[in-house]
Design goal:
This protein is an alpha/beta fold. 46% of the residues lie in helices and 14% in strands. The strands form two sheets. An eight-stranded parallel barrel has the order 3-4-5-6-7-8-9-10, surrounded by seven helices. The chain has a two-stranded antiparallel sheet with strand order 1-2. Helix 3 runs parallel beside helix 5, helix 5 runs parallel beside helix 6 and helix 10 packs antiparallel against helix 13. The radius of gyration is 20 Å and the shape is globular. The chain starts with a strand and ends with a helix. The C terminus is likely disordered.
Length: 349
Amino acid sequence: MHIGPYVLPNRYFVAPMAGVTDRPFRQLCKQLGAGYAVSEMVTSRPDLQDSLKTSRRANHAGEPGPIAVQIAGTEAQMMADAARFNIDRGAQIIDINMGCPAKKVCNKWAGSALMQDQALALQIVSAVVQACAPQGVPVTLKMRTGWCQAEKNAVQLARAAQAAGVQMVTVHGRTREQGYKGAAEYDTIAAVKAALTIPVVANGDIDSPAKARAVLAATGADAVMIGRAAQGRPWIFREIAHFMATGQTLAQPLVAEVKHLLLAHLHDHYTLYGEWAGVRSARKHIGWYVRGLPGGEAFRAHMNTLPDAQTQTRAVTHFFEALNTRMDRLPAPGLGQASQATHLLETVT
């Protein structure tokens, strides 16, 4: 599969998630089989481009390409300038956010709110494409099915975006009104795929290899994008790749491997954020890794009290070493894990 000049190794992608898909997480997912990863949403506001938060989100040091950066905003010229700003800092693909349902984003008419104003949305798409074209940088678009059930305009908007020069469209199978509630639907994604000639990516509720295969079959999409199911389970990408290639379910990872992966993740996380902020922002990641494990909830509560990197990593080490005395491999994900993941996301971010 291609995005512009870039050939991707597979069609199993990491979704951009604010507060989650920072550089350490993206690198880990790619290491574990993801074919493509998009950065956290980066604001287009020039007064925030030098902020610590934005500089961390725009940090791609050592990250294997292609480097994809998602930008968000409401003004066409500002979005075009943001695209150039991020290209100067290493972005090789620019993704436009029209999918974020967060109130603090939509209240400013960014994210999925743009789907309510198709004229403005297309002004932004055209401006960003024109800014990126001279530098040979492809532009992609992430959207929802529409603003609400009565206003599903994904097909119309996707067709117009393709005509404006967008080279890939990702559709989350929910309206903005749904947020992350209810079940994703894939008929709209299938309709978008049927209407376009550029690659289309299916997103929403893909939490297992079997679900990935089913969604690809149902939509005809060129790829799937996984978000919440990868939190604390970044090896899901190699599980999907193995299942798609062989039809066989890959064994759950060894407890010892997960301990090694998490400790390496924490080290990279502290390096990016510094110890004080890193310890606190790492807590949600650790919580996702241990959810559903024996003693995981008690450990998460204890871990949230630990104030520094040394005690945090020591506690993680001891937890997984103790778990390893009880089992060699992680237990298979529980049936209720998706709903638990949603609840955990809401409570710890």
